[in-house]
Amino acid sequence: MTTTSTAQIPVSLYGFLTPRPGHADELRRLLMDLVEPSRGHEGSLQYHLHEQEDGRFFLYEIWRSREGLDRHNATPLLRAFMDELPAHLEGTPEAYFGVLRSPYPTVGA
Questions:
Q1: Which backbone phi and psi does 22 adopt, to 5 degrees?
Q2: Where are the alpha helices (DSSP H) in 1-109?
Q3: SS3 of 3, please?
Q4: In degrees rounded to 5, what are phi and psi of residue 105?
Q5: What are the chain's domains?
Q6: End-to-end alpha carbon distance in the chain
């Protein structure tokens, strides 16, 4: 029996966050404070924050593997963010997780 390891298959995490009325500036600050540190975490390939015309925020992340994403999610930075997040959100985040099926470009190619 052959098993296939998913250790090095890139994964993506993306979704929308809607700020509670009067909380857009604070949510923006919290999200922006994640960008550069997250990009520096081992396994981060892409980490982007977008702001929609309707006021929602869109996060788009690609990680080298599920294990890299799990390590990122276990950091004190992310745990503190997740503890503070509900106070600034209207409803629940609209989040999606997937395996990146298109080839990820190699550096220098």
A1: 85, 0
A2: 24-39, 66-73, 76-84
A3: coil
A4: -65, 145
A5: 11-99 (3.30.70.100)
A6: 36
Long-range contacts formed by 76-83: CB under 8 A, 24+ apart: 77/34, 77/37, 77/38, 78/34, 78/38, 81/30, 81/33, 81/34
Question: Tens of pLDDT along the chain (109 residues)?
Answer: 444 444 588 999 999 999 999 999 999 999 999 999 999 999 999 999 999 999 999 999 999 999 999 999 999 999 999 999 999 999 999 999 999 888 777 655 4
**The pair of three-digit structure tokens given for residue 21, joined into one six-digit string:** 């009325």
Structure tokens belonging to residue 33: 């404070």
DSSP string, 37-48: HHHTSTTEEEEE
